[in-house]
Amino acid sequence: MFSGPSAGEWRVRLASVEDAEVFVALVQRGFAESRRTPLPSSALGETVQVVRRSLDHDLGALLLLGQEPVGCVRFRLEPRDLARPARAWLASASDDPSAARAVEPASSLHLSRLVVVPEARGRGAARHLVTHLARAAAAVGVEWLRLTARSRYPDARPFWLALGFEVTGYSECYGVAELVTHLQRRVVAPSRPREGGSES
Ligand SMILES: CC(C)(COP(=O)(O)OP(=O)(O)OC[C@H]1O[C@@H](n2cnc3c(N)ncnc32)[C@H](O)[C@@H]1OP(=O)(O)O)[C@@H](O)C(=O)NCCC(=O)NCCS
Asked: Which of the residues 89, 104, 134, 200 could staple to 7 if both were Cys, CB 3.0 to 4.6 A apart?
């Protein structure tokens, strides 16, 4: 069904609160493997109401293949009071980088709940989504992408390291030391080591 899309076939759309149900469905599918671990992701417990509130307060994007949502991510700007103007700039930044003027150069974009449904994995979907956001953020002067990821159950770090993120620290969660890894990357990713692998 999702065989062989090229980067040009992915489409990223800024989400609205009306997309909360789609987010919950994608997260349930995307984090399903975490159910079989000793500490399932808290993402699995998020209701439509919780996600609606989050999309109202912060931001989210859907990754579409054709009309089909195959991935999503939520994000917020720090300082947080920039979240509202951010809607406008993220919506327009790809086409018109000059559209946004509200973002301080030192601010960062915090990503969370990134998922790609299992059938669409391994084809650059997540990289495309993160790259799209990074470009929009870079266009308006945001300097850093930041996030926290599980160090185990399962270990999400290899994926983020592949995208050029670096570990900045660890914290305890659910009584487990270093369960949470803190990562960051400049919005402009470091060049990838191999030839012919430019981001799109
Ligand atoms: C992690 C996830 C988003 C990756 O989605 P994807 O579309 O398959 O990822 P991509 O195809 O864009 O891969 C991008 C890079 O990451 C690497 N990568 C992807 N998944 C990886 C994994 N599990 N382990 C190590 N590297 C991985 C790929 O090899 C690729 O590297 P390359 O471009 O240098 O070859 C997806 O597996 C998922 O939804 N997992 C469950 C939810 C989750 O863990 N989300 C992260 C929350 S912190």
From this structure: 200
> Which stretches of the chain drop beneath a pLDDT of 50?
1-3, 94, 96-102, 195-200
CA distance 101 to 75: 19
Q: Ligand 1 centre from 126 Cα, in Å?
A: 6
Q: How remote is the CA of residue 99 from the centroid of ligand 1, in Å?
A: 31
Domains annotated for the chain, with CATH where assigned, are 7-146 (3.40.630.30)
How many CA atoms, within 13 angstroms, populate the side-chain half-sphere of residue 131? 19
Sign of CA dihedral 17, 18, 23, 28: positive
The answer, yes or no, to whether any atom of ligand 1 lies below 6 A from the CB of 118, is no
Best probe residue, ligand 1, of 9, 130, 132, 159 (max atoms within 8 Å of C-beta): 159
pTM of the model: 0.87
